[in-house]
């Protein structure tokens, strides 16, 4: 039997308005999760380099657990598992944001640790010799330099988190992939629609990559 397939560009472009309704959810989950994850990362990243073993161990445990398990498993645990412990349901959008937060927080912790430890010891000694306290030395000398060095890997983590939101269609979050699935269920144009989904993800991630490269060219990040 001779079966031929012809790509339907009209169907592909017709799906775009429907797919665009999922982008706000994709961006909300990724950026809200990253903002919370950044705060988590600062706390656990600094605990990771603490001289106290009792502060380091919980940080190491958190980082290894959430870096060592898939984000899909984490969101399923939050959405289906935690309600059994809490005695009530968790909103799918909240579950998605929480999953991005705890997952990205583990990776950002290592970014924070690496950024702070990359600052030469002489910088700390110079701050102390000027009469600054250890806290002031960290706040005014170490952290500003470390943060500039963290921006490129933080941007990479942002791109990863944006792509990770595609997994949350399994819990019914109306993000980009979920909207594509809904549209395919009524039109049966799977190839065309998923191609447009991929193209929209590419536009988002390339835009973020371009912004990061622009910052690097202006000398606002890195060394």
From TrEMBL:
Residues 23-212 form the ABC transmembrane type-1 domain. It is a multi-pass membrane protein. Gene3D superfamilies: MetI-like. It comes from the Bacteria. It is found in: Cell inner membrane; Cell membrane. The chain crosses the membrane at residues 25-47, 59-82, 88-108, 193-215. Keywords: Amino-acid transport, Cell membrane, Membrane, Transmembrane, Transmembrane helix, Transport. Coiled coil: none annotated. Its main location: membrane. The keyword Transport applies. Belongs to the binding-protein-dependent transport system permease family. HisMQ subfamily. Part of the binding-protein-dependent transport system for glutamine; probably responsible for the translocation of the substrate across the membrane. This is Amino acid ABC transporter permease. It comes from Halomonas koreensis.
């Amino acid at each position: 039997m001779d079966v031929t397939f012809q790509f339907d560009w009209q169907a592909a472009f017709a799906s775009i308005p429907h797919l665009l309704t999922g982008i706000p959810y994709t961006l909300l989950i990724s950026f809200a999760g990253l903002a919370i994850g950044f705060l988590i990362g600062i706390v656990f990243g600094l605990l990771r380099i603490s001289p106290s073993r009792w502060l380091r161990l919980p940080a190491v445990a958190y980082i290894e657990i959430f870096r060592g398990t898939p984000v899909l498993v984490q969101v399923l645990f939050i959405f289906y598992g935690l309600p059994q412990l809490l005695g009530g349901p968790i909103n799918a959008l909240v579950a998605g944001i929480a999953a991005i937060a705890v997952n990205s927080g583990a990776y950002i912790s290592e970014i924070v640790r690496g950024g702070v430890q990359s600052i030469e010891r002489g910088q700390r000694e110079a701050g102390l010799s000027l009469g600054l306290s250890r806290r002031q030395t960290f706040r005014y000398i170490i952290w500003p330099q470390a943060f500039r060095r963290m921006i490129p890997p933080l941007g990479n983590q942002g791109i990863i988190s944006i792509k990770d939101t595609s997994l949350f269609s399994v819990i019914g979050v109306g993000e980009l992939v979920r909207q594509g699935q809904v549209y395919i269920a009524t039109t049966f144009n799977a190839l065309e629609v998923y191609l447009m989904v991929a193209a929209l993800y590419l536009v988002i991630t390339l835009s973020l990559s371009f912004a990061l490269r622009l910052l690097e060219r202006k000398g606002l990040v890195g060394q």
